[in-house]
Amino acid sequence: MTSLGAWELPEELRMVRETVRRFMENDVKPAEDQVPHDAYELPESLFRPLSDKARTLGLWGYRFPKQYGGGGLNLLGQAVLAEEAAKCRMGINIPACGAFGLDVPSPIFRGSQQQIERYAIPAIQAGKRVYIAISEPSGGSDPARAIRLKAVRRGNSYVLNGQKMWIGAAASAEWGLVFARTDPGAGRGGISCFIVDKNVKGLTMRPIPVIRSLSPYEMFFDNVEVPEENRLGEEGQGFALCDKFVVESRIPFSAGCIGVAKAALRIATEWAKTRETFNSKLADKQAIQWMLADSEMELRAARLLVWQAAWKCDLGQDAKIDSSIAKVAATETASRVVDRAIQIMGGLGVSKELPLERWYRELRVRRISEGPSEVHRMVVARHILRSGND
């Protein structure tokens, strides 16, 4: 027998995982326990010590290139870290309560050096929020057809008119990336990407209340003028920037769902070992044992699907199908696991004494955001019908 084909997580990533796990348990959780149940940020007095320690540990901006002040982790590393960073109440949307910095959309790093220095680097260094505006009232899962926000060239500027919808962090961001149609008749080739500052004239927005306390926004563009130097890439290259971004971003997105579900399973397991009903522990009842076993098996499978998508991206291979599979598996598995955890906990599971009910609501959103499960299934089905299964 040989070890040909054997694989294990690299030692460096195992060390990263253990470091983040300790940081979450010893630093992040005690800080988060001091804020309200549905909070989405920490006060400066609690946040600053966490971010300072994250910088010391080399975890600040782990998703961004090293040459711009980030940690330079590949996508597999990002998946490993994201799973652990999600294990706090706000972690599914704000990993580690923001202690590692906030997301800067990766397309900005394909812009000019001037754009990177003016926008990306300050955002990374300060941990500033950045939005990315793709979805519109006409749809979000099919941007090549759904994008109707118009960008008309006028001299050395573009004038934007239309709407964007379901845009997270729009109100608190200093700037964002906006995808608009520069050529109505060119399909995918008619979409361009623009850097839009927060306070530009003609841009307004309103929150959209949803089942979680963090609201997305609807954005209104009324003759918003954007200088030509704020176009990202060449005219008509927006879809290519968008397509690569959404494929890669699904990987840490999916890993975070698994992390939350693992945390929920741990809570339910500990409860089952101590809770007595009908003269025996919950853990002694076969119905509960099977719920715990199914959850563990499904989470292990979902994690490997996420890692496989990350591997293919890191190897420079086409991971679109793998990314879709990982997203569906992770979000739907995590939803089932958290639901089971609530069932095991009974009334305590739906109380705000525990994070389970919050995770339940937020995972319901995750089955829609980054593309609904049905759309990803359609993508996978088309691949099978066209190319067969691997």
The SS-based structural class is alpha+beta
Number of strands: 10
Order of helices and strands: HHHHEHEEEEEEEHEEHHHH
General form: globular
Largest sheet: 4 strands, mixed
Adjacency order of strands in the biggest sheet: 1-4-5-8
The total count of helices amounts to 10
Distance between the termini: 26 Å
How would you explain this protein's 3D organization?
The mean pLDDT is 94. The protein has a four-stranded mixed β-sheet with strand order 1-4-5-8. By secondary structure, the protein is an alpha+beta fold. It is built from ten helices and ten strands. It folds into three domains: 11-126, Butyryl-Coa Dehydrogenase, subunit A, domain 1 (Orthogonal Bundle); 130-232, Butyryl-CoA Dehydrogenase, subunit A, domain 2; 240-387, Butyryl-CoA Dehydrogenase, subunit A, domain 3 (Up-down Bundle), CATH 1.20.140.10.
